[in-house]
Amino acid sequence: MELLFSTDSPPHHAIAAAKISGISLNAKPSLPTGSPPSLLLETGKRLCGTNVILRHIGRISSVPGFYGRDAYQASQIDEWIDYAPIFASGSEFESACCFVDEYLLLNTFLAGYSLSIADVAVWTGLAGAGLRWESLRKSKKYQNLVRWFNSISTEYDSQLSELASTFLGKRGSTKVAASKSKEPQASNSRSNTVENAVHTTETAGTRAFEVDLPDAEVGKVKLRFAPEPSGYLHIGHSKAALLNQYFAERYKGQVIIRFDDTNPDKESSEFVDNLLKDIETLGIKYSAITYTSDHFPQIMEMAEKLIREGKAYVDDTPREKMQQERMDGIESRCRNNIVEENLKLWKEMITGSERGLMCCLRGKLDMQDPNKSLRDPVYYRCNLTPHHRIGAEYKVYPTYDFCCPFVDSVEGITHALRSSEYHDRNDQYYRIQTDMGFRKVHIYEFSRLNMVYTLLSKRKLLWFVQNGKVESWDDPRFPTVQGIVRRGLKIEALIQFILEQGASKNLNLMEWDKLWAINKKIIDPVCPRHTAVIEERRVLLILTDGPTDPFVRILPKHKKYEGAGEKGVTYSNRIWIDYADAESISVNEEVTLKDWGNAVVKEIKKDENEVVTQLVGVLHLEGNVKKTKLKLTWLSDGNELVRLTLVDFDYLITKKKLEEDEDFTDVVNPCTRTETSALGESDMRNLKRGDVIQLERKGYYRCDIPLIRPSKPIVLFAIPDGKQQTVAK
């Protein structure tokens, strides 16, 4: 595409959006002064106007959510695009900065949970303001706005630096902020590959993907997310749910939620309710909720139809023998029973009689096929357990292999997304649909998300619940959505992590570190800072010249983010420090007391076992804090301190990757929860459940149980930061 514009008014945001998207633009400053920019498309058609071109790039971009994930977000983006030109107005520049800063207090991006053309429009507006923005950026006046601006600058460094140097020049911000993080930055190089009909574009550590679904028509694509209500949604299901939503948005189609409730032994209404809760947490927009059980009468009619057509038969072969015969390609002795005999036994199955309970219904496919899934799979089994929705109305239930191709067809699904673990059963799916006389539903495969030291089988997770190894399905050691959110993960981090994986079919084992590192980037700029001292063997430091009458100073909870609020800090001549700090101090050593100043330790008292029991020192507030080796966190001794329980977690299993034939109970980690008693500053009594904080020099924590009464401690769950990864013993 060719972008034409005048030298006095290049469309900065459209150029930036194209660079971030990896869209090739041939930019030519060839139009007369004052002319609106125009975009010449490959079809020969032309678009005119700065915002028109930006919106077009947003629509064709493969970056997820670049022009919103739904109509509401797209409308939000339109509002911001219309607002962005205000930054070119000298008289209104600072009031606009104030407005956006207040908005970003509770938002990571301007619209939704990911970068959009709204962010690009406002970012380029600020960058184009030149020194005026740079002076504000270096001040502490608009900290939310600066945090947002610097985050985008760092994430898209190569693209935006080139834009600034080429088009903004002296007038704009030509220096993109360097990341303050010591973490290695992902490669900024762009690579385009076509593999399995997936076009991937990698830019600045993020991956966007564009999938060509077979025979897909814009506006006519219908997808389904079909969890079995036998557990809570976990991180693997989240990938399937978000990919379904992504493809529906891409093709302007729809997603339905279907509960595959065909096994009453495992399913319950509790699981249905919590799955819907988790789906809402992920922000999945669905058009309808259906249940496979809604179709039971029609599925039974189809089963009888196939029996009459000789495409299914009733088999009373014992299960173990049947499995062996399928492996060996041996036909069942019941395979050639006449239709009348099959119908008679089918009715026995329907009534749940003693004879019927000995039988199952099998498809008559091909017992010699190399693909064993086609060797007469089971279509129906008897089960006398009442169903959680429809009670004891049925004594027979269809298998997933049989009902899935049926329900997909009758519900009008155009494309069924399945993880690649089902690859060998795709031929079976199509064969069953053919026998039923239905149209073909296209299958699109994606790789299952596997995490190190993690079990994603609901059967195995249920074992941990039933055997008391975890509290419940929302236990913070579980990979369920509710579990990892309770551990302290922000849902924006989960969405970003999964969308970065793209639609690849390549199987891979993912590290949790990457997910937690994304989470840290979200929580660190805004979470309040507090101080705690480990209770065990804590050491009293007596400052002989310290204030005998305690006094309180009001300090910010986050020095770079005013929105975190303020707290009162008590100063006195008796302060507690951690034992680990106390034993590392030498006599006459000068140390720094954080948020106070320097002090010199004059005396170290120890017991008969050489354990430090008390320190005595004097203040030296005029000392140089840059020259001290130890920077100590401390708490003033007093009744206002609150009791804390700091909880750390480890993996539930001790092996990084479990082999298919390996018994997971052999590698269960015997110790996965560690509790440490601590004392916290008085302001922590105001914490609420779900609050995320940082304990200075100890890490990030989520409040699981706030202060209820003084005799009960506040319970804080440690949040991994992507660096200090626990290794199972």
UniProtKB/TrEMBL annotation:
It is found in: Cytoplasm. Residues 184-196 have a biased composition (Polar residues). Keywords: Aminoacyl-tRNA synthetase, ATP-binding, Cytoplasm, Ligase, Nucleotide-binding, Protein biosynthesis. Gene3D superfamilies: 1.20.1050.130, HUPs, Ribosomal Protein L25, Chain P. One of its GO terms (biological process) is reproductive structure development. Residues 631-704 form the tRNA synthetases class I (E and Q) anti-codon binding domain. Pfam families: tRNA-synt_1c, tRNA-synt_1c_C, tRNA-synt_1c_C2. Its EC number is 6.1.1.17. Residues 220-524 form the Glutamyl/glutaminyl-tRNA synthetase class Ib catalytic domain. It catalyses: tRNA(Glu) + L-glutamate + ATP = L-glutamyl-tRNA(Glu) + AMP + diphosphate. GO terms for cellular component: cytoplasm; protein-containing complex. Residues 527-616 form the Glutamyl/glutaminyl-tRNA synthetase class Ib anti-codon binding domain. One of its GO terms (molecular function) is glutamate-tRNA ligase activity. Residues 176-196 are annotated as: Disordered. Its main location: cytoplasm. It is an enzyme of class 6 (ligase). Belongs to the class-I aminoacyl-tRNA synthetase family. Glutamate--tRNA ligase type 2 subfamily. NCBIfam families: gltX_arch (TIGR00463). This is glutamate--tRNA ligase. It comes from Salvia divinorum. The lineage of its organism: Eukaryota, Viridiplantae, Streptophyta, Embryophyta, Tracheophyta.
